[in-house]
Amino acid sequence: SLGSSESLQSKDKRKPRVIVVSMKLPLSMSAKEGDGEAGWDFKVDENALLVQACTSSVLDKDFEVIHVGCLPKEVAPEEQDDISSELMEKFNYMPVFLGDDLKEKYYNSFCKQTLWPLLHYLLPLSTASSGRFKQDEWTAYMKANRIFVDKLLQFLRPEEDYIWIHDYHLLVLPALLRKRSYKVKVGLFLHSPFPSSEVFRAFPKREELLRSFLTADLVGFQSFDYARHFLSCCARQLGVEHEMDKGSIALKYFGRKVYVTISPTGVQPSRLLECCSWNDTVWRKGELMNEYKDKTILLGMDDLDPFKGIELKLHAYEHILDMHPYLRQSLVLIQVVNPPRSHSKEMEALQLELRECVERINNKYGSDKHTPLVWLDRSVPHYERIALYSIADCTIVTATRDGMNLMPYEYIVCRQGPDASPGVRRSTLVVSEFVGCSPSLSGALRVNPWSVESVSDAMLQCISMSPQESMLRHDKHWKYITRHTASHWASSYLNNLKKACANHSSMKFYGLGLGLDSFRMVALDVNFRRLDEVSVNEAFRNSQSCVFLLDYDQTLMTTTSFSNQPSEEVLMVLGDLCASTSNTVVIVSGRRAQDLEAWFGGVKNLGLIAEHGYKFWPPGGDRWETHLQVEPKWHDVVLPILEHYVECTDGSYLERKESALVWHYQDTDPDYGSWQAKELLDHLDSVLANLPVEPSKGNGIIEVSPQGATKGQAIEVVLSWTRKVRDDVDFVFCVGDDRSDEEMFKAVEHVTYSPHMPAEVFACTVGAKPSQAPYYLDDPNDVLDILRQLSKKK
Q1: Residue 272: closest CA among 481, 452, 99
Q2: 3 state DSSP class of 714
Q3: 157, HSE (Cβ side, Cα atoms, 13 Å)
Q4: Are 699 and 740 in contact (CB under 8 A)?
Q5: Whole-angstrom Cα distance, residue 188 to residue 493?
């Protein structure tokens, strides 16, 4: 609304703003009570992670925080403007309105039935599964994310604000936002797990989601396992490899660096300790202690969800009671089950199984005076939750796959209690190794939840643990939790986001591609620009001696593995350029000499450079000249090594050139191929230390070639030859497309500043991508067009 936008713009502009975007705003709403009263009462959920994380004094000092998300309930259109103004004024909250129908399809159907299982490693193999991909639900997901974009753009200051997007409900939001505003500063944090590439690759819209992740500046995960899976997906699905950058993980993606951070969330101990002193909490704790006097209490507190492993916990507990009769009257498991967030056939089957399990255990081992399994199938108020944590001797988490799960942290804090409370602080934990918090809790007993024996053994170990050991384990956890709080997590993440966006001002951004699966953000140096044809034509017209240095593959021709030969059009344009006596035209290629001679031998006065400078056919010449001396014996050393790697690496092959040997691995498994390439480079470095050859890594290749065999050296040879047979060069046009051509661009850059060769130089790469060249052309067709124009000038 206009009112809410104005109120946003009138806020203090000196402090940078963080816009925290989540599917739901962290608040509760209820209809106003009283006769004739209409409208809603809103209350901030002080226990929500994002509220605790973003209301610390550290964050308040550095940022103004605005929350964006949906309300718990949809409201009538005529109420929306007033509610937006009220929430912005009171809480700095900006609501997004989706409507009941869209929210049902977007949240309850796609997010909960399709994305949630996928991210938890579950594929919908059954045709009856509610998790099968449906196009109309994906359309609803996209539409909902676009509504979030529209809301953000009402008040966003793209070059100043930081946008922090949360969780799987909004995974396409970074790309949709970036398409509308190139310079936005975007962080994305995934609270859920991220599956292995073998699971994720089965998702029909995998590329759309991955490319959207990569339009963010910083991507956060709860644990290294999930980050590792994401990096593997990027390598396997998109061919984007990661690198280490001063201790950070970075992905180079079209000139931008996308950083990946592992940031485990935390709790705010001060808030929980304050709750421990509430009257309701003290009363409920006393009541529970009286009720379970002289009992050993195990506690489970989970959402009703197939991935929480509640049934596995019950089986392990039943196993203890089966095998250890002496515990049947003294051991109690209190299991709190929060209501499900969505409904499905799988959920109904789980509820039925759990009910049967509870009845079986209590019928088998319960009595009028003792209930071994207390089943709380309801929402538990916060004070009761704190009270339950406070009295539990051991807490058990048996999730088969989960994000962070902060329940163990809350338990530790509540067992610590306020400073004034008497007694020794002790706690024990049984935690599934598949939960995000598991690596952080080194004092917990980590278990494979699928193994009933290992879970029951861990429970027994906790029950029988000495007071001193449980005290030491508790103390270790308490120290960790007080350092790694929710506010520490937020400030650390936002500082990393600031660093990730630090060079935005020195870059130019371009959007390429229309659909979400093809859209990518290209970042280029501010001085990098498209080649101006008018300037080139004018400089060429005023020149006396011109040199054209032309790469072949993907520059003059879009070559494929099926067709490498130049077209008739390319040969005709080259012939027209060579017809002028003032032009020196040279093809500079890595291809073999016999191939270039076969393809271009019919073009009169055309020069050829083969194998990156190893051989030179001068313009108007009649034979190849060799400008590098090659040690003949090195082939005998290198060839057996490369043949061994071809044998060991399925999909790789060997190419033999006169001057070089090339191992191609672009068609191998991405991970295995990369490992083998790294191993081969290390192997060759040690073997070739005393030989005048060097191995180099290219795009899917390892090439072993003589030292000095680069396109940069080749350019020196061409320019030296030109000075001998022609006047001083006053115009240089150099064009190429890949990493090997960067040496060529460096070499011609020296010509620009050379006092004995004052030439007008146009170095140009094909495609708008980071390069040593100051100019770019879009594709081989553009290169051919400009060469055609120049061929007609003289």
Answers
A1: 481
A2: helix
A3: 16
A4: no
A5: 10
* Separation CA 738–CA 758 (nearest Å): 27
Tell me the pLDDT tens digit for each residue of 288-326. Answer: 999 999 999 999 999 999 899 999 999 999 999 999 999
Pair of tokens at residue 431? 């935690």
CB 314 within 8 A of CB 358: yes
What 3-state DSSP class applies to 283?
helix
CB neighbours of 6 closer than 8 A, spacing ≥ 6?
A: none
- Taking the C-alpha atoms of 456, 458, 461 and 467 in order, what is their torsion angle to the nearest 10 degrees? -130
- For the chain, the first-to-last Cα distance in angstroms comes to 63
Q: Percent of the chain having pLDDT more than 90?
A: 62
For residue 1, the model assigns a pLDDT of 44
Residue located via tokens 């997010």: 111
Burial of residue 176 (number of CB atoms within 10 Å: 0-12, 13-18, 19+): buried
CB 300: neighbour CB atoms within 10 A? 25
Q: Write out the two tokens for 367.
A: 């009595």
Q: What is the DSSP letter of 132?
A: S
In degrees, to the nearest 5, what angle opens at C-alpha 217 toward C-alphas 212 and 218? 95
Torsion of CA 645, 646, 652, 653, to 10 degrees: 130
Taking CA atoms, 628 is separated from 187, 593, 692, 706, in Å, by 51, 14, 11, 8
| Structural tokens at position 752 | 């620009």
Spatial distance between the Cα atoms of 119 and 418, rounded to a whole number of angstroms: 38
The structure tokens listed for 175 are 């790309």
CA pair distance 628, 85, nearest whole angstrom: 75
pLDDT at residue 724 in the model: 81
